[in-house]
Design brief:
161 residues, 3 helices, alpha/beta, 5-stranded mixed beta sheet
C-alpha cells in the first residue's frame, strides 16, 4: 500500500482526496486509478488501493474504467467485454458457458475480464434482469463497464432472453 502511495505522488495523483478513502475493499484489488472520463471525471487524478484479494489479483490486468498503476512506473489496461459496445467481439474468446447458472455466469465473466458485481452491489441478487448480464458500454456513461451480475429470479427461458 505504501508503494502505491509513493507511485501516486510520483505521477501527480492524489491518494488522500477530501471525502475519498484511498484504501478499502473496492471492486478492484491493488493499486489503480480510473479513466479521466469515468463518472464525468469525479475520480480524475486520484489513486486507490483495493485491500482485498491476493497478490495475484492485486497485479492482474484491469479493463475500463480501471487502470492498473504499476509500482515503479507504467500503467496497464486491457480491452474487456464491457468495452465491446457494438464492436466485433474478439475472436480468441472461448465458446460461452451455460449462463443460466450462477457458476457458469461467474466463470464466463471472469474469463472475459469482468468483475463479479460492482459499485457496492453483490454479484448475485434478485435483480430485474434474470440470469447472467452486464451493461452496454454506453449505459450510464460507461459507469458499469467491466462488471457482470447474475439475477436469481425467472425461468430458464427468461434467463436466456
Amino acid at each position: 500500500m505504501e508503494g502505491c502511495k509513493a507511485e501516486a505522488i510520483e505521477r501527480g495523483l492524489s491518494w488522500n482526496a477530501e471525502g475519498q478513502e484511498f484504501a478499502g475493499f473496492w471492486e478492484v484489488d491493488g493499486c489503480f486509478r480510473y479513466e479521466s472520463s469515468y463518472s464525468n471525471g469525479a475520480y480524475n487524478g486520484q489513486a486507490y488501493f483495493g485491500t482485498g484479494g491476493t497478490d495475484e489479483t492485486k497485479t492482474q490486468d484491469l479493463c475500463s474504467p480501471h487502470i492498473r498503476l504499476l509500482i515503479n512506473g507504467g500503467e496497464e489496461q486491457v480491452p474487456c467485454a464491457g468495452e465491446w459496445g457494438g464492436d466485433s467481439k474478439p475472436v480468441d474468446f472461448p465458446a460461452m458457458r451455460d449462463l443460466t447458472t450462477q457458476e457458469g455466469c461467474a466463470a464466463e465473466a471472469l474469463e472475459r475480464g469482468l468483475t463479479l458485481g460492482g459499485d457496492g452491489q453483490p454479484f448475485e441478487g434478485a435483480w430485474e434482469a434474470h440470469g447472467c448480464f452486464m451493461y452496454d458500454s454506453t449505459y450510464y456513461d460507461g459507469y458499469y463497464n467491466g462488471m457482470a451480475w447474475f439475477g436469481t429470479g425467472g425461468t430458464t427461458e427468461e434467463k436466456l432472453w
